[in-house]
Amino acid sequence: MLTALITGGSRGIGAATVRAFASAGYRTAFFYRSSESAAQTLAAETGAYAIQCDIRDSASASAACKQASRLLGHIDVLVNNAGIAQQKLFTDITDDDWHAMLDTNLSGAFYTSRAVLPDMISRRYGRIINVGSIWGQVGASCEVHYSVAKAGLIGLTKALAKEVAPSGVTVNCICPGVIETDMLSCFTPDDLSALAQETPAGRLGTPEEIAHSILWLADPKSGFMTAQIIGVNGGFGE
Question: Most exposed among 5, 8, 180, 219, judged by the fewest C-beta atoms under 10 Å?
Fold first, then answer.
């Protein structure tokens, strides 16, 4: 049976991804940082293992990956989904804001990928799927630190994919457009309506649509797909 580990799995795109993998028959585990109640509810619903982890901390990420590997037997698929967002003028971004953004959205993916890769390489099979953002591709005003972190994730994807391809491991990045999650809670209804109008598809995306794309990349039949940055954005920003 194939296995999957999803970071940031207790809500939004992460929770939809946990449900998608569990429904597809994967033995699944997911990380959460503080949403204990939501994590336990999702674990009960899906049968997935919920593992508390501060993805920003190298030791915590490494220990949690080892725990996931013990529970699952091994890790076939790693989905680096954990992330935060923030809107601020560039000149108002504090050092703490900057470090929190990069530590969560970029360093966390480095820590987890580094932890799971040796076993993937030894078994000559693995899928690493990073969840980026349209803003990592085109940049967003008032979200410079978020855009930088997601752009870094794209760079990590392309470089790591080339390094591990000879070992049977693929690395790809899904870049969602504007998706209906609680990351949009800071936007007004008028803002959301304007974003939907700017999207050629005429609406916002759903977490389930992103999860479906991630599941497709994880499929054993997708083994020739690597180093790709795939926009799932309804045409937004294209």
Answer: 219
